[in-house]
Design a protein that fits this description.
alpha+beta, Aldehyde Oxidoreductase, domain 4, seven-stranded mixed sheet, six-stranded mixed sheet, 34 strands, AldOxase/xan_DH_MoCoBD1
């Protein structure tokens, strides 16, 4: 039990410190109840207060400078600004005096409660960061302000309700007194009590002064001038380098044939065998890479042996043909009956190939293990995970509290860096040469050949219309490996279709898989939105009118449709040789997008010229950053829809680097991407994964309007486009 005053329930600071035997008080991530952080002795406690940690989230110095801690990864999506901005809003902090730093990687204090009841994780994935931390950061900011107001009230001996605060300055109107947050520090440290923080008032949305305004991102200047530190920039004294040869047959086991030769090479320190790779540690990176290139390895077969990605779709079709359903995801009404009694039934198969994450910064980590193997320091750009210590304690056999993770900026994540395999590999190498620090680097070839991909899959959709042309049944079967990796986004929550069924039918091929931006929404929304246009085209309906009907009971979704129609001038015909296509996506936020394309019928090349997006993302923290997220998502969506694919022959990955893994180039980017944000007072929703999955459907639907032909296999490479034109 925490000691409290019998009279007013307020925590006595000195009594607390005396009775708690070396425990310092911080405000926990729940934003409601205090969390306890152990300290070794009273000296440590005193040091904590000398640093003026008002709560675990913020520090203030006497000159008014404020440090706010960001608990999320920063990989270009803006969390280094958006989350501290929410905190500063409720704290009424002077934003010009705010500096942002990464929080310690301690989920008990800094984890988000927004993932599941009773759990707290530090996990920057799924477009959940702002959504899951919104209430946490608001409450924690309000608590920090409450502590400061309480100190001012005690100092002036006035009721706290008579105080106001703006831009880090507390005012007492009646006496005309003012005091800054920095000036309050001595009184805060010397204060006898802390206020009751179980309930603190939050601002009304219309009182926001930072949220919803154009605030420059905090990390951009350092990224522009080159001072921003990514993990790959980390240099430590006596650091050595590690690389692994993993081959391109996932799961194959290596037998090294020339160990003595490699150990005799200049700079080579040690060879470290893994179940799936051979590790090389050398004094310099160049030496490690040279030794890696000389490795002679006999590789075993694996579960992937014999697998051919182009041929497997025939098997997928057979699985889709089976009468027995797989894992049921949606089952509303009676789809079978509706299909039997339908005026017309539509059926189509949609396919998508494996897609690589292609993050700009190669995977890397730096780890230093103590000489006694009981402690470790980790420098890494990570999307964090279920384990904030990234698997290192398990590798080293030490307690999690003995591992200190220094989170760095990420040069791209897209889901790949939510897997900690590369960190665990580095820990294995670092253990071998402790106490020397080791930097592990995956080359681009490593990551392409032994990466983790968005799964290939097949979506079979059956839909029917009644005599009035209304869609009355919708059946969606997805065949592929990875569960939610292929099945997410399969629901039609914003379309009023009375009879719906969806299931997932499992396959496995021994290929490494991982969440890729928008996960299963990309392939599934492509399939859903494409068949809607097929129905509209056949029924001689405007695809917008068809969606208007379906969205009749979803006013927020409908509002995005109407705004997209307006800003794209949908009703006006496109110029000769151009056409527009439309697509709706829900991925936390709601968005409707329109793409205008042209087609070179000789080469089969599609060009996206203009894109319009209408987005409802609830309360918008940083409008300009949301638009930047949509633009990035659109570019990635176009790239994956038109160009990107991993192919597998006899289990071996065929692509090696960006010379044979095609990405959208600058000259192929749209001339215009226009985003309109629709105001909403709802809780903020994710925006990083809304734009990407809307693109393929919009392009395919524009292609249908332009040619009367269907595109059903992503990516829409020139050869597939020409095949569709000639079908």
């Amino acid at each position: 039990m925490l000691p409290t005053s019998q009279k007013n329930g307020i925590l006595n600071r000195r009594e607390f410190l005396k009775s708690s035997s070396g425990i310092a008080l911080f405000i926990g991530a729940s934003g409601i109840f205090p969390a306890l952080v152990s300290c070794s002795d009273s000296k440590t406690i005193q040091q904590q207060f000398e640093k003026h940690a008002i709560t675990a989230w913020v520090k203030i110095s006497e000159d008014g400078q404020i440090i706010i801690y960001n608990p999320a990864s920063e990989m270009g999506q803006g969390s280094m600004t958006s989350l501290p901005l929410i905190f500063a809003e409720e704290m009424d902090a002077d934003w010009s005096k705010v500096k942002v730093e990464f929080s310690p990687q301690e989920s008990e204090t800094y984890g988000s409660p927004g993932w599941s009841p009773g759990s707290k994780m530090m996990f920057t994935v799924g477009s959940r960061t702002t959504n899951s931390y919104f209430n946490t950061m608001r409450t924690a900011g309000a608590q920090a302000k409450a502590i400061l107001l309480h100190a001012a009230a005690q100092h002036w001996k006035v009721p706290i309700k008579e105080l106001s605060v703006e831009n880090s300055v507390v005012s007492h109107t009646e006496s005309a007194k003012t005091i800054s947050y920095g000036e309050l520090i001595p009184y805060l440290v010397a204060g006898e009590t802390l206020p009751d923080l179980s309930e603190v008032p939050l601002k009304a949305l219309d009182k926001f002064k930072l949220i919803g305004h154009e605030i420059p991102r905090t990390e951009i200047p350092s990224k522009v001038d080159g001072t921003a530190q990514f993990a790959i920039d980390v240099r430590l004294p006596d650091m050595v380098y590690g690389v692994l040869e993993r081959g391109n047959l996932h799961g194959a086991k290596p037998t090294l044939l020339n160990e003595s030769e490699i150990l005799g090479m200049e700079g080579v320190i040690k060879l470290v065998p893994f179940d799936y790779a051979i590790g090389v540690i050398a004094s310099k990176l160049e030496q490690a890479l040279k030794a890696k290139s000389q490795l002679k390895i006999d590789w075993s077969s694996s579960d992937a042996s014999g697998f051919n990605s182009e041929e497997i779709y025939q098997e997928y079709e057979k699985i889709a043909n089976q009468n027995q359903s797989g894992e049921v995801i949606t089952n509303e009404g009676d789809v079978s009956k509706a299909l039997r009694n339908a005026s017309k039934v539509y059926q189509a198969d949609y396919k998508n190939d494996y897609v690589y994450h292609a993050q700009l910064e190669p995977l890397n980590a730096v780890i230093q293990v103590s000489e006694d193997l009981q402690k470790a320091e980790v420098w890494v750009g990570s999307q964090q995970g279920m384990d904030t210590k990234l698997g290192v304690p398990g590798i080293l056999g030490i307690p999690p509290e003995n591992v200190n993770v220094h989170l760095q900026y990420l040069g791209g994540g897209f889901g790949r860096r939510s897997l900690s395999d590369f960190v665990e590999e580095c820990a294995v190498l670092a253990k071998e040469v402790a106490p020397k620090p080791v930097k592990l680097i995956w080359t681009r070839e490593d990551d392409l050949r032994y990466g983790t991909y968005r799964p290939m899959s097949l979506q079979r959709i059956k839909a029917s219309v009644d005599a009035s042309g209304n869609i009355n049944a919708f059946s969606h079967t997805v065949v592929g490996d990875g569960g939610n990796l292929v099945a997410s986004g399969i629901q039609n929550d914003h379309y009023a279709i009375p009879n719906q069924f969806a299931d997932w039918r499992s396959t496995t091929h021994g290929i490494r898989l991982k969440h890729w931006r928008s996960v299963g929404h990309g392939p599934n929304k492509f399939a859903i939105e494409s068949i809607l246009d097929q129905i509209a085209y056949d029924q001689k309906m405007d695809p917008v009118d068809l969606r208007r009907k379906l969205m009749a009971n979803s006013p927020r979704a409908l509002a995005t449709l109407e705004k997209a129609v307006e800003i794209s001038n949908w009703a006006e015909p496109s110029p000769e040789g151009f056409a527009k296509g439309i697509s709706f996506v829900e991925h936390g936020s709601l968005g409707t997008g329109v793409c205008e394309i042209s087609l070179n019928k000789e080469t089969g090349e599609i060009k996206v010229h203009r894109v319009w997006i209408a987005l409802d993302a609830g309360t918008i923290i940083q409008p300009d950053n949301v638009k930047a997220q949509m633009e990035g998502g659109i570019i990635m969506g176009i790239s994956s829809a038109l160009k990107e694919r991993i192919s597998v022959v006899d289990g071996h990955i065929q692509q090696n680097n960006f010379n044979d893994y095609s990405l959208l180039r600058m000259q192929d980017s749209p001339d215009i991407i226009e985003t309109v944000l629709i105001p909403s007072g709802e809780t903020p929703q994710g925006v990083g994964e809304t734009a990407t999955p809307m693109v393929a459907g919009a392009i395919a639907n524009a292609f249908l309007q332009l040619t009367g032909k269907y595109l059903r296999h992503m990516p829409f490479t020139p050869d597939r486009v020409l095949e569709a034109l000639n079908s």
